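user:
I keep going back and forth on a fold encoding question. Separate attempts, laid side by side, tell us more than any discussion would. Would you put together a sequence-and-structure record for a protein of your own picking? Write it directly below this note and I will take it from there.

assistant:
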Amino acid sequence: MTGTATDPTPTATRHRHLLDFTAWSAADVVALLGRADVMAQVLTRTIKKVPALQGFTIATLFFEESTRTRLSFERAARAQSADVIAFAAGSSSLKKGESLRDTLRTVDQLQVDLYVVRHPASGAPYQLARWTDAAIVNAGDGRRAHPTQALLDAYTMLKRFGGGGGGGSERADPERPFAGKRLTIVGDVDHSRVARSNVELFTKLGGEVTLCGPATLVPAEFGAVPGVRVVTRLEEAVEGAHAVMGLRLQQERMSAGLLPSLSEYVARYQLTEKVMRLAHDGAILMHPGPLIRDVEVDSALADGPRSVIEQQVANGVPVRMAVLYTLLVGKG
């Protein structure tokens, strides 16, 4: 489909896996996001299905609970006519003591072409990639990475703001579509794979990222990353931002003492209409979900015109369609 009348995306490097963005150039990412536009057109048709991946088998291996990501990947695979095997760790032989490697070897015998993997241990998808000849997509590993969430966040911003130089310059670099744009991420950055992948991707595409939250939840080393600044005062973080992303407090991953109290967090870091008035005039509110209303985001803001939370979920399908096609068939 690359470079044809049905797919205008530019040619980029062929990749075997999507584990993070280390091996992906800005051109690779821009090409993939362009392909997501093609996939989005498919989803507007009366029959929302194409035979692009007919004959391929995709397995979703989720060792951690998920709603949005798992359903989005399964929808993306079926919209391209792929066969889908859904694996649930809770009802598998892992409960009987089988090793992760032996489980993978068993599923491999079903002739799987691509695995979508979510695992609570950081690095698990990278290890699985060493054990199989199939493609691997990291759907979230511990606190390390969640690349397709970052891709759909980037796609959502591009649909709202467009790309290039922040002012529509004709000389804008197409590989830096977020030049002049600033993303602010607020909350539990320390435990967030979404924050890490967004920092990696957004800066790769020319943007700036501000991280904000209690000092115990925002590692200071992020401040040494080019294009990233770390602040603890919410008003300073939000001022002038084009997009503001709230993060869930992952209390299930926290040790005691990281937060004085939930009420103090709400008082200092909850995103509200008042706080968002400090942002750019057209600033949008984002959240990767699940959203805990009236903790990280005020309900009125979450349901207001600035919120693109539901659009993020919808955009996940064409973006993940593009990821699956790119790894299995495409050259972009």
In short: Confidence is low (pLDDT under 50) at residues 1-10, 164-170. Strands lie at 57-62, 83-88, 114-119, 135-141, 182-186, 208-212, 228-231, 243-246, 284-286. The radius of gyration is 20 Å.
